[in-house]
Fold this sequence. Notes:
About 80% of the residues lie in helices and about 0% in strands. It is mainly alpha-helical.
Amino acid sequence: MTGYIIRRMGQAVIVILGVILLTFLLAHFIPGGEARAVLGVKATPTAIVQFNRRNGLDLPIWDQFWQYVKGIVLHFDLGYSYKYNQGVKQVILERLPKTLTLVLASTVLALVIAIPLGILQVVRRNRPIDYAVTGASFFFYAMPDFLVGTLLIIFFSFDLKWFPSSPPTDASAWSVFTDPQAFILPIVTLCVTSIASFSRYMRSSMMEAMADDYIRTARAKGASSNRVLYGHALRNALIPILTLLGLSLPAIVSGALIVENVFNYPGMGLLTVQAALNVDIPVVLGTTLVITIATVLGSLLADILYAVADPRIRLGGS
Length: 318
């Protein structure tokens, strides 16, 4: 298991370094350069030269990349936002916890709902409830997040007036748990697609587990149906879900960016869109890098949990 974790950590580091290189190059592919994007199209050549000299953009590109990597690794320096008039790190640290708690709450809720749904479909397979859940899964999986969010706002906020159309703009990161009513619509919007995906995989995994030899052996020994289902099949059926969770994290995070814009929630998603509209290049690149690192670390955690849950991974790693 140790060898497996070391290999996965090495792969994660390589991916993060690749993303750092990509974000660095993106800043240099901007038409007119970063100076023109920050100072505007009316900036004089003298002002551009001074901006480049002040920010080290007149150095050789390999020297710029080294300074960029060193700043990120040693100080997590992501640059300076001239629109917010403060460091990008400070801007992101104000928004990142809000997105993380939103993603965490929606992912946990999706798993809590999807796993019993998948089990129910196996227990009632080829019956009306199985067909109904399957049809609903395909329907919601095909719906984009912005459409689900808009429909929920129209129906539950404007028509029924049960929930607010958006969380408070001054809400803290932990308001997801302390004031859940204001976050019901964003969380439901974010977890609808995940529930559809997880429940389908859970059904397939449970069906495969129920057909294995050890299940027949347990039944031959007189184990009850509940013992076979929850004591043997469920434990092994959950292992692929861990892998699916790791693979789904990029989609969940990207969905959170869309949901934040639909509900005007001041997290990383809204920050990224506003930075793009304001041509705030350092913030756009900083949020891209941070979101990628968070996604890679989440996938790494899912892989480690997979290794803990599956003895075959531990034996292979040792």
